[in-house]
Automatic annotation (TrEMBL):
One of its GO terms (molecular function) is isomerase activity. The lineage of its organism: Bacteria, Thermotogati, Deinococcota, Deinococci, Thermales. It is found in: Cytoplasm. Pathway: Carbohydrate biosynthesis; gluconeogenesis; Carbohydrate degradation; glycolysis; D-glyceraldehyde 3-phosphate and glycerone phosphate from D-glucose: step 2/4. Belongs to the GPI family. The gene is pgi. Its EC number is 5.3.1.9. Keywords: Cytoplasm, Gluconeogenesis, Glycolysis, Isomerase. PANTHER family: GLUCOSE-6-PHOSPHATE ISOMERASE. It comes from Thermus brockianus. Pfam families: PGI. InterPro entries: G6P_Isomerase, Phosphoglucose_isomerase_CS, SIS_dom_sf, SIS_PGI_1, SIS_PGI_2. The active site is at residues 267, 293, 406. This is Glucose-6-phosphate isomerase.
Length: 417
């Protein structure tokens, strides 16, 4: 269950009523593009794709030998699986992410892995991302050197259904390849094989994840009063004059989720609008309780330039009681409580303290941290982002601003000869 709390934002229900026509129009405009080629709205349908899920499960069953799973990919090709695997891994398979190009950690990783027990998953929608291709060159070479002709069984690609270098490689070499549907962009691809394949090896409950996402779909299309994504989109719209959108999650298991949200929000919404005006707010990742001891001082007493989203679990999946220990009477106020009660008290205290400081803050309560609630949350945030794209007059599904950096990198390398 996912629940919105706006107790510190009085007047929100009036705002919701006042903005109903705008919100419904934005939703209509978005949905009118559903099914259009190039609209990139295929992520809406991913939760229903049980055929792909079956294929992925079969592949997982055919490869019980895997002990280490190396994901080569960056941005939307890595952030989602990384966030979900950290939260729900249960199989003992070790995961490694090559979402960078720093030589030392890659050398260390290559030295530590047993190639016979390693599955490499190269993930790239475009098949053209320099970081991913560089990782692939290294791992391909390594697999071939250690396994000879058998290397092909140790490399699986997740990429565009038709085009790009990874699809061509898979075709030439007969590699197993999973498709990222044409109409699904990288940062909206977590519920495609980009996320599902690694999560199958992690032993996560994929049925529950997709069921949760279907719930978000249902709510996105529901009447305004029940449409959580329209409501949170409105919260961001009403606060678009505040430059920073903090996304603070009270769960260690969800420690990589803020990074996933940052890409989703920033790369989708930080753009020029139709009139050429610069649009967007800057998502700032935060983790509770750690960032209470790092960022909350600024949030409390620094500029009132933020809208804060707190993601707070309401109950634990399992809890740990804090035992009374005679040697530590100073911790007496904790005796007999549980770890989760402390976590919850800290989240609630921070929520109140931020509101009292004058910051604009709301909470998204999760009944617990589970594949179901997180599937729901991820898909909810994708809807929120898509609605904001409509409200702000930007295309939430392209990223023209990253192209120049890529072209220059290539030019620098080619210039070196
Ligand atoms: O999946 P690809 O095509 O390798 O892209 C990786 C990432 O790079 C970007 O295109 C930005 O450069 C992101 O949108 C994307 O998630």
């Amino acid at each position: 269950m996912l629940r919105l709390d706006t107790r510190f934002l009085p007047g929100f229900s009036e705002e919701l009523k006042a903005h109903a026509p705008l919100l419904l129009e934005a939703r209509e405009a978005l949905l009118a593009k559903r099914g259009q080629k190039g609209a990139m709205l295929g992520w809406m349908d991913l939760p229903e794709d049980t055929e792909t899920l079956r294929e992925i499960r079969r592949f997982r069953e055919q490869n019980p030998w895997v002990e280490d799973f190396v994901l080569l990919g960056i941005g939307g090709s890595a952030l989602g699986p990384k966030a979900l695997e950290a939260a729900f891994a249960d199989s003992g398979v070790r995961f490694h992410y090559v979402d960078h190009v720093e030589p030392e950690p890659i050398r260390k990783l290559l030295q530590s892995l047993n190639p016979h027990k390693t599955l490499v998953n190269a993930v790239s929608k475009s098949g053209a991302t320099a970081e991913t291709l560089a990782g692939l060159l290294l791992f391909l070479d390594w697999l071939k050197a250690h396994l000879g002709e058998a290397w092909r069984r140790h490399l699986v690609v997740t990429t565009d259904p038709k085009g790009g270098a990874l699809r061509a490689l898979a075709g030439r070499e007969g590699l197993r390849a999973f498709a990222i549907p044409e109409e699904v962009g990288g940062r909206f691809s977590v519920l495609s094989p980009v996320g599902l394949l690694p999560l199958a090896f992690a032993g996560a409950d994929l049925d529950a994840l997709l069921m949760g996402a279907r719930k978000a779909n249902e709510q996105a299309l529901a009447p305004l009063e029940e449409s959580l994504p329209l409501k949170t989109a409105l919260l961001h719209h009403l606060h678009r004059h505040l430059p920073i959108a903090v996304f603070m999650v009270y769960s260690e298991r969800l420690r990589y989720l803020p990074a996933w949200f940052v890409q989703l929000h920033d790369e989708s919404l930080g753009k020029r609008d139709q009139e050429g005006r610069r649009v967007g707010t800057t998502a700032l990742p935060a983790l509770g309780p750690q960032d209470q001891h790092a960022q909350v001082q600024l949030f409390r007493e620094g500029p009132l330039d933020k809208l804060l989203t707190l993601v707070i679990p309401e109950s634990p999946v399992e809890d740990l009681p804090l035992p009374p220990v005679g040697e530590l009477p100073e911790a007496g106020y904790l005796f007999g409580k549980t770890l989760f009660r402390l976590l919850k008290a800290e989240a609630e205290a921070t929520y109140q303290a931020l509101a009292e400081a004058g910051q604009r803050v709301y909470a998204l309560y999760l009944s617990e941290v589970s594949p179901y609630t997180i599937g729901w949350l991820l898909q909810h945030l994708m809807w929120q982002t898509a609605f904001l794209g409509e409200l702000w007059g930007v295309n939430a599904f392209d990223q023209p601003g990253v192209e120049l950096g890529k072209r220059l990198t290539r030019a620098f390398l080619e210039g070196e000869g």
